Amino acid sequence: MEILNLKKQGVTACVREAIKKLRAGGVILYPTDTLYGLGADALSDEAVGKIYEIKGRDKKKPIHAIITDIKMMEKYAEVSDLARTLAKELLPGPLTLILKKKVGIKTGIAKGRSKIGFRIPDNQFCLALAKKFGKPLTTTSANKSGSKTERTVKAILKQLGSAKERISLVIDAGKLPDQLPSTVVDMTGNEPIILREGAIPVADIWNAIRVEM
User: Fold this and answer.
1) Residue 206, Cβ neighbours under 10 Å: how many?
2) How many CB atoms neighbour CB 178 within 10 A?
3) What distance in Å separates the CA atoms of residue 40 and residue 22, rounded to the nearest whole number?
4) Which tens digits make up the pLDDT trace of 128-186?
5) Is 77 helix (H, G, I), strand (E, B) or coil?
6) Is the dihedral of CA 46, 108, 105, 133 positive or negative?
7) Can you say whether the dihedral through the CA atoms of 48, 54, 58, 64 is positive or negative?
8) Which of 131, 140, 133, 74 is closest to 105 using CA atoms?
9) pTM for this one?
10) Rounded CA gap, 50 and 166, in Å?
11) How far apart (Å, rounded) are the C-alpha atoms in residues 15 and 12?
């Protein structure tokens, strides 16, 4: 496992190394605008399988992905006018949109599912990484399922135990500030359904789309 310090090495160097690992099917531990996450090629069955194994996560539970912009979102999912409005108002930011996946998207996080979740973090490293990678990469909290979400790389690796050996690269940004996870909104029906209220209050969601509705 390689560990890079984001502040010392810089965004460009860290992105370059992360891309190498992602393209080789590896898993990275990286900072987002909310928590540290586990990243892998979101469309690779093998890479996504590693994420489930590291976390000990039930494979029935979905894993979401980071993208660069609405254009990339539209490549993999059906984006309604309402979802597009919400994305324009609140992204980049701690918001995850659950959308109907497009026909033909069948692998990785979309395997066996009709829906797919995307977010665009308000984080320089994440945006640079997603842009350079050119396709979705997973974003799921770096913790054992059901366990506390830690704020430092040291605490995360300790919690993961032997499973940490499956991580190819760690991008250490120091201790992240206390922050709620992203707010998750299902946009696959006639109106939004708040699946999880996180860093963005529910009121902000409704305010952003009230004109459209």
Assistant:
1) 12
2) 6
3) 6
4) 999 999 999 999 999 999 999 999 999 999 999 999 999 999 999 999 998 899 999 99
5) strand
6) negative
7) negative
8) 74
9) 0.93
10) 7
11) 5
